[in-house]
Amino acid sequence: GENVEQHPSTLSVQEGDSAVIKCTYSDSASNYFPWYKQELGKRPQLIIDIRSNVGEKKDQRIAVTLNKTAKHFSLHITETQPEDSAVYFCAASGADAGKSTFGDGTTLTVKP
Amino acid sequence: SAVISQKPSRDICQRGTSLTIQCQVDSQVTMMFWYRQQPGQSLTLIATANQGSEATYESGFVIDKFPISRPNLTFSTLTVSNMSPEDSSIYLCSVGQGFLNEQFFGPGTRLTVL
Fold first, then answer.
1. CA closest to B58 among chain A residues
2. For A4, which residue in chain B has the nearest alpha carbon?
3. Cβ–Cβ of B101/A97 closer than 8 Å?
């Protein structure tokens, strides 16, 4: 089955700095890579996603890049703000659309 | 995106009892999934709830422990049977929707087993 590894497990940045979270996956059949933000006590919220036929996608301050050959994808957050503080999960899914394997999560802390 | 509700939002249960969690979606969806999130951990897929057929369970999860129903395209239940403290977790249902089958989560059910 699919295996997703996520790094780092914790990340602390100053407000205004950039944050990068990296994930690798094992199954070459995976073709959909979403990122979720989970605030304390709340459900995971989809923040951005990318398909395997796209190398990069951007939405305001967040962007995701995908290297299908190397089987890794990354989340980039620019101009971080304290409200970006949360746990971020990457995930990968393939033939069984909607069925995702999640990384272990990254706790991002943005210091004001 | 679909509006997903779960009942109960939280419960405290005694060891050896069972709890049924309900998941309701405001539109018909083909795919519904049940996940478990243990304290401080990531999300682990328990099973895919299939309408009109038995659920498909992931490795490490069995029907006797986590029976699932999916009577129609907007509703599913997950039962946590013969509970032990190790079952204390947040249980989340999710649906796949849209052209890309984006996955959206319900608010979760926080279960504590004493």
1. A1
2. B42
3. yes
Beta bridge partners of B4: B25
CB B66 within 8 Å of CB B58: no
A96 contact B CB<8A: yes
- For B83, the token pair is 């509970």
What is the identity of the amino acid at B39?
Answer: P
> DSSP letter at A93?
B
Q: Are A88 and A105 in contact (CB under 8 A)?
A: yes
For the stretch B60-103, pLDDT in tens is 999 999 999 999 999 999 999 999 999 999 999 998 876 666 78
- Pick from A19-28, B25-34, B69-78: least confident: B25-34
End-to-end CA distance of chain B: 36
